[in-house]
Amino acid sequence: MDEKQAKKKIQELKKTIEYHNHKYYVLDSPEIDDKEYDRLMKELIELEENYPSLKTPDSPSQRVGGEPLDEFSRVRHTVPMLSLANAENEQELREFDNRLRRLIGDDRSFSYVCELKIDGLAVSLVYENGVFVRGATRGDGLVGEDITNNLKTVRSIPLSLNSSYNLEVRGEVFMPKGAFYKLNEEKEKKGEEPFANPRNAAAGSLRQLDPKIAAKRELDIFLYSVPYIDIEENIEKKEFQSHYETLEFIKSIGFKVNPYIEKFSTIEGVVDYCTGFLERKPELQYDIDGIVIKVDEISIQNELGTTAKSPRWAIAYKFPAEKKVTQVQNIIINVGRTGALTPVAFLEPVNVAGSVVKRASLHNEDILNEKGIKIGDFVEIQKAGDIIPEIVRVIEEKRTGEEKDFVYPKECPVCKTEAVRLEDEAILRCINPSCPAQTVEKIIHFVSRDAMDVEGLGDKLVEKLYNEGLIKDVADLYYLSKDDIAGLSGFGEKSAENLINAIEESKSRPLTNLIFALGIRFVGKKAAGLLAKKYRTIDKLLDAKEEDIAEIPGMGEKIADSIVKFLSDENSLSLINKLKEAGVNMEETQEDEGEDRSFEGSIFNGKSVVLTGKVEGYSREEVKKILDRLGADVKNSVSRNTDIVIAGEDAGSKVDKARELGVEIMSGEEFLDKVGYL
Fold first, then answer.
1. Is 388 helix (H, G, I), strand (E, B) or coil?
2. Does residue 263 sit in the same domain as residue 118?
3. Residue among 617, 674, 664 at smallest CA distance from 642
4. Cys-Cys crosslink for 144: which of 108, 137, 545, 597, Cβ 3.0 to 4.6 Å?
5. In terms of residue numbers, what domain contains 347?
6. Which SS3 state, helix, strand or coil, does residue 57 take?
């Protein structure tokens, strides 16, 4: 076969394979069996290997995954990927309808389109001349990550279209429940931590630097919008009259659209659809967390416009948080790397919102006492924001009298140092800097993914290295030898060599990672990035004055004070010098990309947030500035439109109002943890 014949055969195979991909993955009506499909793919791959110049980016062979990347590049969206405002109940749906009618006039009619809100990862797909050229995550709505190679492995995404369109489509990548259960079974067999839920599995798969991993994950997608479209290099421009027409067009050119889409002329139809679909949710082979409601007429969408964060013509109806009853088996005190003594409830395992919950933080003594939780109590739990397990209430009518009060300790349970409550803090702390529990937690933090990212060095191994006396601080990691590791049970020559290589590789991490890894109080990954961006080297940071640090947007006096105190401490200086001598990088190697995007993908973006009480280490204005930078709309009072109430120390009646309305309540510590300043 010569090259001309090979080219013709490759084109035939590509067309045939993509036809069967569409029939199987989009229409769910396969025409050939797996054996025949594999034969066609094998023939294509062999031809492309023999004639590499004929391999193109839109070839079905690209779905098996290309070469691993070092990192994802950033993509600026042509049209911002906005978030949606939320409705929690029927009344808020009707308020949304009333608001729209006031804006456009009560005498004008319009329709609504309802779509399932897929619990996955929002992505943008760009096609040029009908060929898929780029795919990106939502990111912060303006800038996302280029995950093109991973998206090519999603077989329901066409690599080429049936016409020469220049367009962008957007949708939600998800992992079907069957694929999720299969993946977790495989991970458990390997002794790996299973994914918490299908959404995490889908997001984790798309953010793998090695596309071959994503290719094995059986991801899927539903498309739902077309931000722009031109045909044949702008010769003709296509415009849609309605959103429903847009969805029909998306389907007609080969994209997968969710089948549960309905159109309604009144808000009453919308309300019935939203409230009724909750019962049908278990029937689906994928997770949803609500219904998206959009005005159908494009002209009215354009007239209503958008706010800075969300379109005025759309809203997301969120299903009520799933609550389950379980029993408190025990309450123990966890000692964190800052010495915080945090009570944790160990629960009878129960599945809540897609994952098994075994424990829930009780935060501090005041919250524990306020909720009146005892060992042996039956409690109602839910996931705050569908993520963090929390105990909602004690079911007192189930008490038998055999429940036990939990006695809060007066000393650290590990080193037995007296526990103290510092001024303006709600939490007890162990103030012994040599406490073994704190040391181990500091090392675990130091090697974690967002810090020095030492692959293969998990919590248990850190504890083993510490207990064996091989390490006493984070710097000792860089003085370990292969023989030290090989001498541990469960390690051989090869695994020891791999770990030493991973530790060696971590020496080259940017200054941002090192600053975060040092565990300075109140300095998370975001703050570490701001410091590294300004000072560029550890020596310049060591010379920085408190007032200069405080002036960095997002810092403030409390953080600056903590940084200076840490960096002027003799033990800290000794540790930094020890790391220097080991060859750990002390300079910022990441390029300064100008406009700060340090809060990409913020969960606060577009949310209505109310602050009550004092957040440890911050003034009210400092917290408000952080929330503003995260895209939150900070309000003074709690209403049905409030998304989150941040309840700090001495929180007032706003918390009671939030509970009454079913608004998510987040502790000050949870807030700091989420924004990376803890």
1. strand
2. yes
3. 664
4. 137
5. 324-412
6. coil
Over the stretch 134-144, which tens digit does the pLDDT of each residue have? 999 988 778 88
Separation of alpha carbons 266 and 147, rounded Å:
40
Judge whether 476 lies within some domain: no
- Span 234-254, pLDDT tens digits: 444 467 899 999 999 999 998
User: Within this chain, do residues 248 and 281 fall inside the same structural domain, yes or no?
Assistant: yes
115 contact partners, CB below 8 Å, separation of at least 6: 224, 258, 260, 261, 291, 292, 294
Decide if 573 is inside a domain: no
Specify whether 269 is located in the same domain as 343.
no
Q: Give the three-class secondary structure for 214.
A: helix
Residues 304 and 328 in one domain: no
Using the Cα atoms of residue 154, residue 159, residue 161 and residue 167 in order, give the sign of their dihedral: positive
HSE value, Cβ hemisphere, 13 Å, CA-based, for 102: 7
14, 117, 152, 371: which is the annotated catalytic residue? 117
Outline where DSSP puts E strands in 121-164: 121-128, 131-137, 143-145
Q: Which residues, at least 6 apart from 543, have a Cβ–Cβ distance to it below 8 Å?
A: none
Structural domain ending residue among the three candidates 315, 345, 362: 315
Residue where a domain stops, chosen among 412, 429, 444:
412
Q: For the domain that residue 39 is a member of, what is the CATH number? A: 1.10.287.610
CA distances from 288 to 2, 168, 206, 256, 292 (A): 51, 24, 19, 17, 11
Active site residue 607: no
Rounded CA-CA distance 298/310 in Å is 16
Report the largest interatomic distance among the alpha carbons of the chain, rounded to a whole angstrom: 86
Q: What is the pLDDT of residue 231?
A: 59
Tens-digit pLDDT profile for residues 438-492: 999 999 999 998 899 998 898 889 999 999 999 999 999 999 999 999 888 878 8
How many domains, the chain?
4
Inside any domain, residue 552: no
State whether 330 and 274 are in the same domain. no
Residues 530-539 have pLDDT tens digits of: 899 899 999 9
**Same domain for 152 and 21?**
no
Which residue carries 């911002």 as its tokens?
Answer: 80
pLDDT band for position 65 (50/70/90)? low
Q: What is the pLDDT of residue 404?
A: 96
Residue 560, domain member (yes or no): no
